[in-house]
Amino acid sequence: MDGNEHAAQFIVGLRWESLPEPVRRQARLCLLDSLGALLAGTLTRVGRIAAAYAADTWRGDEATVLLAGRRAQAAGAAFANGCAANALDIDDDAVYTRGHPGAQLFPAALAVAEKVDAGGKALLEALVVGYEIAIRTARAWHSHHETYQACASWGSVACAAASARLLGLDAGQVQHALGIAEYLAPNAPMMRDIDRPAMVKHGIGWGAMHGVTSAELAARGFTGIPSILGFDEYRDWVADLGSRYSLAEGGVNRKRWCSCAWGHAAIHATLKLLRSHGIRVSEIARIRLHTFHEGWRLWQQPPTSTEEAQFSIKWPLATMLLDGQVGPDQVLEPRLDDPALNDLIGRIEVVEDPEINRMYRLRARGVTSPDARIASRAQVTLTDGRSFDSGIVDRESPSWDDELLEAKFRWLAAYVVPGETAEHLLRLVREFESLPSARALARAL
Q1: What are the structural domains of the chain?
Q2: Which of 158, 252, 411, 431 has the most crowded CB, counting CB atoms within 10 A?
């Protein structure tokens, strides 16, 4: 049995009751985290554009474009909701992916679940399938392609897997769905958007839409090539499907700030330095940030759009220092003209550091080593001439237990729905596997 056959058997054969409890718990938390990111993402211009376009272009009544008062075909709803879920860059990322699985998988799975009126358990099973396929496909994808392609590339395959599961495809059809998704996947050259941030970002909406479409085509008999999961060189990365779950091993990382994770270590390094020495922001003459190449490529000019603010290394740090937060209020357009923030980013310099670069390269390749790190270093000079150095500091992530993740959800949901609606959604997620219809989630909104 090659990797494609094994992946198809895993996708078809997975059963919620047979999953370890840590996997089931993480699936619920992934659903909640993606839902919160999606709801807050509807505040953005890209979220509004995608919602209107999807309802006009994919006319239908299969699925809901959340908080837009519109419905569309499943592929259209997946596109619109996917664009919103990544619109504020506070959605999850995962090991080996160098990107965002949840913002694609949840919109795709929800749209297809609505289309076929699947229950909550079926949607959660599709999410588990999707995350496990995403992590392995992305690892193979980045190994195979010289150009760093963004999330919609490998994400299309993962969304096809989740959609195929919900559509009830057999193992042969699943293989075709994966092959269609991979062959026709978006070529999303990520670093070009890092250099000039725009609404295309990671291509999340396209990944969700293309995954749904690929599974729907396979269901009709459309054929695809064998996917990258069947390549001999990636056999070991696929062979543990069904016996090892990345979801239960810390494979998914969750974000507390609305900005690219490549800049988070710089925030941690600067905050650590200021707190350890009792430095006030008003005392800072300049900040020098040391980072890896991709972090250095992040936007360094004063941002003029929310995309430039999120894909900046300076702006999120400045808002954290002045506001103590990097949330929707800090990265949406109304805040971008703030003179105090723009003055502060003018005092920040970013340099590429060879040692930090080396550490990041090891981490990106999945090397298990103390040197495989996502790190930064901050040097702060005060107006009185004194200088301080943080040393190399890692990107930190809190321990995302249920309580902390629910607090994050309430924070994001409060921007767009009343408190009682947020609490109702939380209750639905807590008991999601017992819901007879996943449509209850959309109806609540």
Answers
A1: 3-256+402-443 (1.10.4100.10), 261-394 (3.30.1330.120)
A2: 158
